[in-house]
Amino acid sequence: MTPEGDKASILIVDDHEENLEAFEAILQDLGQNIVKARSGEEALRRLYHQDFAVILLDVRMPGMDGLETAALIRARPRSRHIPIIFVTAFDDPLERITRGYSIGAVDYIVKPVHPEILRSKVRVFVELFLKTRSLEREVQERRRAEEELRAANRELEAFSYSVSHDLRGPLRAITGFSEILLEEYADKLEGGMGRDCLNRIADGARQMDALIQDLLTFSRLGRDRIELTEVDPAEVLSESIARVEVGQADIAIQGPFAPLRANRVLLTQVFYNLISNAVKFVPPGVRPVVRIRSERHGERVRIWVEDNGIGIAPEYHDRIFRVFERLNPSSGYPGTGIGLAIVRRAMERMGGKVGLESSPGQGSRFWIELPAASAPKTDPRPQR
Ligand code: ADP
Fold it and tell me: How far is residue 111's CA from residue 15's CA, in Å, rounded to a whole number?
């Protein structure tokens, strides 16, 4: 048995008690609440307080007849969408029935009613009502869960932001004092393990600082407002490359590049991370060769950053964009595992996408896609 509150309600409106009872007896099998009203006025009162799956409305009633009642039901926002089945007498003129439809009846049934036909017609609306209600509840439940998740995420980000921020203070002290020791007490450190230990402390502190900086960048990306403007990719690329430690790498920028709608600071960071990886993940002894080119896809522009590095197996293509995912942690490639997570989040904030084509030993071809500056404006994806 469904609890009373989970049942649908059916409203029967008829001025004859014996009709009400007959309808009730027929519809009882459906296992729902049946509410009876003896006049149009009473029906309207009931509708004021309660929601119904369907209304069975007698057309011929003294005082306010079925058609007038239906017109008033349709006029009220609360009851506007409740399906109405008119109950007519077999000698009711056709004109009455068609008027019923024009007022908003969804169906009609002729007296004397056939029990199984009446039950089937009403059952359809009851099922529709129950399904709609359960869908509405699901949607509400999902909305609530999403809101909770968003709040928890916000809290977590604020927490990691402040922790990261506070960690930088003591870290600066460690780096600073180990540098002083290395510079001022160099003579006392010679010959023993002292210098080696201190160098390791300084390296560890530098690595931790890079990690904290990346975490701060990542969490700021989720919170700060961003503005999109027209950006020339060629300019942004040269700014990014100027910051990368390119060493012996051969970097070819193959223009022209169509102007994009993007955020300049974020795009510089995106290219910086992709190009740093492209020159970093090469097998030992191989000179990195990086090619950057662009393709037009309708209103969007795709820019490729291609390398001749170690490549990435397809099963990791999604994983590498998550925070702290590093495929070669013990192979001597430095890093924090946050670079590509920053790239993905930055691209999402700008309403763009990122992806790659790669397999081991075949190099990697990362791409980013953004709207061309000339494309009609649409809002970038809302924040998470
Ligand atoms: P990291 O700080 O380690 O570079 P990223 O988030 O930038 O972190 O990248 C995650 C992982 O994806 C890397 O550790 C590496 O295993 C893989 N990766 C990223 N870019 C490349 C590339 N161009 N070639 C090969 N592997 C790559």
Answer: 14
Cα of 350 vs centre of ligand 1, distance in Å, is: 22
Ligand 1 close to Cβ of residue 327 (< 6 A): yes
- Residues of the chain with pLDDT > 90, as a percent, come to 61
Q: Report the pLDDT averaged over residues 312-338.
A: 90
Cα(316) to ligand 1 centroid in Å equals 10
Other Cβ atoms closer than 10 A to 138: 10
Using 50, 70 and 90 to split pLDDT, how confident is the model at 254?
A: very high
Short-list 264, 263, 266, CA closest to 235: 264
Ligand 1 center–CA 335 separation, angstroms: 8
**Beta carbons of 357 and 285 less than 8 angstroms apart:** no
Per-residue pLDDT at 380: 55
Write down the residue that tokens 């992709």 correspond to. Answer: 274
Handedness of CA 346, 348, 351, 356 (dihedral sign): positive
Query: Could you tell me if the CB of 309 is within 6 A of ligand 1?
Result: yes
d(CA 24, CA 30): 10
Both tokens assigned to 384: 């998470």
Ligand 1 lined by 215 (C-beta under 6 Å): no
- CB-ligand 1 contact for 338 (6 Å cutoff): yes
pLDDT tens sequence across 326-354: 998 777 888 889 999 999 999 999 999 99
Q: Distance, CA 242 to ligand 1 centroid (Å)? A: 20
In angstroms, what is the span from residue 380 Cα to ligand 1's centroid? 26
Inter-helix orientation angle 40-49/66-75, to 10°: 20
Q: Please state, in angstroms and rounded to a whole number, the distance separating the CA atoms of residues 120 and 238.
A: 72
Measured between alpha carbons, how far is 160 from 162 in angstroms, rounded to an integer? 6
Tell me the residue type at 162: S
Q: Could you tell me whether strands 289-297 and 364-371 are parallel, antiparallel, or unpaired per DSSP bridges?
A: unpaired
Q: Is 307 close to ligand 1, i.e. is its CB under 6 Å away?
A: yes
Nearest-angstrom CA–CA distance, 61 and 223: 64
Closest CA to 83 of 113, 47, 114, 115: 47
